[in-house]
Amino acid sequence: MSEIAGRTGLRAGASAVVDESYSFACMRCGHGWEQSFEIEHHTDATGHVFVLYVADGKVVPSPLSRPACRNCDGHVVRILRPGRVASARDAAHGSHRVPPPAGPVEAPVPQAAAARAPRAQHHWHLSDLLHPFQRKAS
∠ CA(64), CA(70), CA(76), 5° rounding? Predict the structure, then answer.
């Protein structure tokens, strides 16, 4: 779900800084976006550990708590691993592969088999298929 890479440059009293990236998709309007965060691990005066999420140089709420859509402000947002939105956009703008037309597939018939006399085909009926399951009256 995230890419985690340790950082060596600590700032503003952080004991550790970790980079994480997420992809987001709004289930309300279909908007998708990606965002990278710096997660700063801090310890307060009483010894409790807390984290700050920093995006674009600003402290922001955790993207995992209650994400909001950038497009419609909806809160039905799916969080995905990084790169999912970019790969979907690339697929949408890339070359479209046209699927083959639907229909029965015919296997090639070898020459030797074609030379033989055709067999009479048996036409199945529902009663033929149910015959083994029918009981005989006694």
Answer: 50
110 vs 27 pLDDT, higher one: 27
What is the length of the chain?
A: 138
Question: What's this model's pTM, rounded to 2 decimal places?
Answer: 0.51
Q: Is residue 52 part of a domain?
A: yes
**Boundaries of domain holding 13:** 5-93
What is the rounded distance in angstroms from the CA atom of residue 37 to the CA atom of residue 15? 16
Domain membership flag for residue 104? no
Decide if 46 is inside a domain: yes
Q: Are 99 and 49 in contact (CB under 8 A)?
A: no
DSSP 54-103: EETTEEE--TTTS---TTT--S-EEEE-TTHHHHHHHHHHSPPPPPPPPS
Only one residue has tokens 């029918």, namely 134
In this structure, the number of other CB atoms found within 10 A of the CB of residue 14 comes to 19
Task: Provide the number of structural domains found in the chain.
Answer: 1
pLDDT per residue as tens digits for the range 59-108 = 888 888 888 888 898 888 888 888 766 666 666 666 556 666 776 767 66
